[in-house]
Write a structure and sequence with these properties.
Shape: rod-shaped
Largest sheet: 3 strands, antiparallel
Mean pLDDT: 75
Radius of gyration: 48 Å
Strand content: 5-15%
Number of strands: 3
Order of helices and strands: HHEEEHHHHH
Helix content: over 70%
Number of domains: 2
Distance between the termini: 22 Å
Number of helices: 7
Length: 271
Amino acid sequence: MAGFFDFLGGANPWTAVIGAGLQLYGANKATEAATSSAENFNTAITEASKPKTVIDPTGSAVWNEQEQRYELAPSAPIMGLFGANLQDVYRQRSFAEPYMLDPEAAAMLRMRETQAALEPTRSSVTEDLLSRLNKGGLLGSSVGATATAELDRQRAIEDAALLKQSRGEVQADITNYINRANAAQTSALGLGSIGQNLANLGISVGSNAGNAANIGGTGLMNAYTQAGLDRAQFPYQLGTRMLGYRPDTTQQNLEAQANYSYAPRFNNPYL
């Protein structure tokens, strides 16, 4: 075996040329192995990390690879609820707007409506008072005047209380309608964002898949790279022998390099 390597390491220039070619071939195969493994690894991570299509009873978020965007489509029931809530927003606002435009006028109107409802009772009280004063001969007296004035004063107090109550009721109605409108709006916005929520889920799934591919694929990439490097070692080492290199003695290597100073040099990191 020693004679065989001595023969390969002879001074024949063709041996040096063939050795250099084998070294170059081995170095190229090693580079190809590392590059191919890295490219495959990158492709696997890129594919795994792509957003995923998500479909559930509330709707769908379909990833369009060609256009690089999601196509969002809420389900029919969700769209129905969305439309109903949106309509309720406008309906509740329409109830509140007349009061909001002129709350005092709305309060006065409500007070008059209450007064109208109380009118039969008030008329009965007034007639009863006048009848009693008339029977007692006091209708035109100072006593009668005082009694009727007191009744009017009580009515004025009642009307003031009614106006205050009406103002509070108007403000309460405004608040109630606005709260209802806001609640319907919040519900509509929540239903309208279902598609985006599904898209976010698809993006998250893709991200997690990419991380998993990165973790699981690193070892596989390294194994493929090493396998390629191992296959490239034989022609490279054979070329080294043919160039006259000796791995056992540094001085012999230097002498071999001096003998073949014209041969190409290759700095290969895999040796």
